[in-house]
Amino acid sequence: MRNMGSQQLHIQLKEGEAWWGGDVTDGIHMPFGRKPFERDLTIGISGNQAAPLLVSSHGRYVWSEHPIRYSFANGALTVACDAGEVVLEDRGTDLRSAFLASAKNHFPSTGTLPDARFFTVPQYNLWIELQYEPTQDKTIEYAESVLANGFPPGVIMIDDNWMEDYGVWKFRSDRFPDPKAMTDKLHEMGFQVMLWTCPFVSPDNAANFRMLEREGFLLQDEHGEVAIRRWWNGYSAVLDCTNKDAVDWYCGQLGQLIDDYGIDGFKLDAGDPEYYRASDRSAVPLHPNEHCEAWAIVGLRYSFNEYRACWKQAGQPLVQRLRDKNHTWDENGLASLIPNGLAQGLTGYAYICPDMIGGGMLGDVENNPDFRVDQELFVRYAQCSALFPMMQFSTAPWRVLDQEHLEYCKATARLHSELGDTFLELAHHSSQTGEPIMRHMAYVFPDGGFEEVTDQFLVGDDILVAPVIMKGTRSRTISFPGAEWQGDDGSIVAGPCTRSVEAPLSRLPWYRRRE
């Protein structure tokens, strides 16, 4: 059913109907429909991925090409769009059919995927260890420690402040005296190398700023002046990513890093809609969310890429990480990983990565002189991340864990690598169909009553994962669908059933469906 020309839909919910989608950060509140909830995507997103999409366990979906407002209340869903049409499609079956129809009709997959190594080896982001002071020597030291402590080599990400200035994408010579030698060494050790970047330009770098302003490459405010925006690192101008020549200039800077030093790719951060205004002047006038989308499109030029904030672009070969989490057990930390990861998949983002293991919120460390790592939490973070399509370390496990807990963490990295071929096979499948790699129980088993199960998930259709996410817990209850399942501990479980299993700190419970 299509409401041609209509900007609002009022949808009566069916009995037992559950909904997912919209803003990924709301995954902790999904499924929608059981209690009142509202979200206005026309005023922005919550620092993570979002899309104008809602999908239902009863085979229905809602889509708009533009930002939407939606609310669940009194047994109904109301969706409104100020800029265009809202579409309701009724497939009349289940969550999977609704999602596949929405993907086919509105964000078809491209047949391509990010570099295969994202799915087969861990990532190592230097953010927490080096913060704003990365150097060539410290980067090499971190990589050497990865190998010395028995972790596999993987994708290493050099985070903020490796460059001369925001918008001057050249290595700081005082910190990186020989970037080519560094990259060559990291490659010899088995690592790929990514650099952090952003769309911001420092107005204090006079020569660079003057050139970009003269060329018209910078976003302007409503008065026609270069827009200066406050973000977490101060005040900066913003590259106009709707201007093809501006994007070509920016990619030319990154291309020089690839050509001169062998850099493999880029973490493209800070494209959040909050840094744009509806009144801004750009080469192509856009809603702030759509400026976020324009920044995401830049990353399609690189097979090694990573985003945190993204609007639309589902089905595209972009790595999407969950936003920075706290070093806590609650829904600001570990407890949010699974529900928000499931929301990523059901919003169309298949190539997903949880936040950095142990949490990536620098404030946990920076603003708390008494901060101490909870070793149990760190291990459970690693276990929860291990069977996501990707996993990412930052805080060095060998620095903060004793030998026992370190061994448990190493086991998670090995497990991820051992299942790398499985993740890669599913990633190729997703590149053709759009299907999530990490799947909700209700997506695969629509008749099992699993809509409210948000602390376990499936990898594809055949691997059931049930991490422990509660402090001090050494067992957990698992909902098994109707099949026979063989556990990591060798046990056989015949579903459907609910069973309590032993889960000592050394164990991540996971099961493979038997033929």
UniProtKB/TrEMBL annotation:
UniProt cross-references to CDD domains, sorted A to Z? GH31_NET37
Q: Is Hydrolase among this UniProt entry's keywords?
A: yes
Q: An example of a Gene Ontology BP annotation on this entry?
A: carbohydrate metabolic process
Instruction: Name any one Pfam family assigned in the record.
Output: Glyco_hydro_31_2nd
Among InterPro entries, the record links this protein to: Alpha-glycosidase_related, GH, Glyco_hydro_31_C, Glyco_hydro_31_TIM, Glyco_hydro_b
Q: Per UniProt, which keywords does this protein have?
A: Glycosidase, Hydrolase
Looking at the record, the residues that make up the Glycosyl hydrolase family 31 C-terminal domain are 434-513
SUPFAM superfamilies, sorted: (Trans)glycosidases, Glycosyl hydrolase domain
Q: Which residues form the Glycoside hydrolase family 31 TIM barrel domain?
A: 131-303
Task: State one molecular function term (GO).
Answer: hydrolase activity, hydrolyzing O-glycosyl compounds
The UniProt similarity line reads: Belongs to the glycosyl hydrolase 31 family.
- Name assigned to this protein: Glycoside hydrolase
Q: Which organism is it from?
A: Cohnella abietis
